[in-house]
Amino acid sequence: MICAAFFASARGQEPVNFRKFLEDKLAKSQRTITENGRQRIVTGVKLVEVCDVDNDPIAARVFAEYGAMFLAAGVVFPQKCIFQNETEVRAFQNGARSKSAVLDGVFIELQEAAMNALLEAQKEAAKKNLKITPRDGSEAAKRSYELTVQLWNARFFPALDHWVAKGKIAPRQADAARAMPVAAQVSQVLKWEEKKLWFSTNRSTSIFYSAAPPGTSQHIFMLAFDVEQYGNRQIRDILAKHGWFQTVKNDATHFTYLGLEKSELPKHGLKQKFIDGQEFWIPNLD
User: Fold this and answer.
1) In this structure, are residues 173 and 167 in contact, taking their beta carbons and an 8 Å threshold?
2) Angle of helix 86-95 relative to helix 145-165, nearest 10 degrees?
3) Rounded Cα–Cα distance for residues 273 and 126 (Å)
4) Whole-number Å distance between alpha carbons of 12 and 267
5) pTM, whole model, 2 decimals?
6) CA 192 to CA 169: how far, in whole Å?
7) CB–CB of 64/209 below 8 Å?
8) Which residues pair with 129 in a beta bridge?
9) Contacts of 145 (CB under 8 A, 6+ apart)
């Protein structure tokens, strides 16, 4: 596994290019590989090994929308941006040090550093008579591959029916899409959304802001937490103080553990964007 602790802190306001920052840090990182039953440490990881942003349109979109998680400090680094099945997801989750807790009667699980920071944020909120609680039960934190498939289907199929009813997608095309493997479905949705046939729950934005394509969710990496009180400015400030930030634009309930100071984010390749009065930090790919 690659440890994200290698990301050094930096200060400043002008965001650097996110891809370049990540490529430079990956080149200096170390990882353990197994060959012929023996382990050895190698230096240097290429971005293409983690996320093939130049040749895979889905990977490129995942990198742009969810890539902030690659900055998380003190956690097990996500070695790939798209997991193909439950076996791959379980292998990653079993190899990451996790911690569980019961918040407001709900069992949740995160990587240990993320959970510790969340619990500290919760304590600070409690001193101000505020609460930080999970939204939508235990799925607010760690998720399985199968759950990401279920969430995808819950958005994909109703949206497909909607656009068929509107006469924008032919029934024959819809039937073919329903039978496609998941990766092919995602590719097809991206093509439809280029024509402004949106697949989010409210049909007004991309499905990427309603449900991550299966195998790509930050929740799989145990670095995301959906917050019930996301609309409270004090809660957002407390979470940010403890390294939790909104990083997926148009998904205001979703917070990502980065373990960094807000002042460090621009030098790590994230840019500030305000949406409906809330502050998001998203990859700067300009």
Assistant:
1) no
2) 140
3) 28
4) 6
5) 0.89
6) 9
7) no
8) none
9) 83, 85, 86, 88, 89, 90, 214, 215, 220
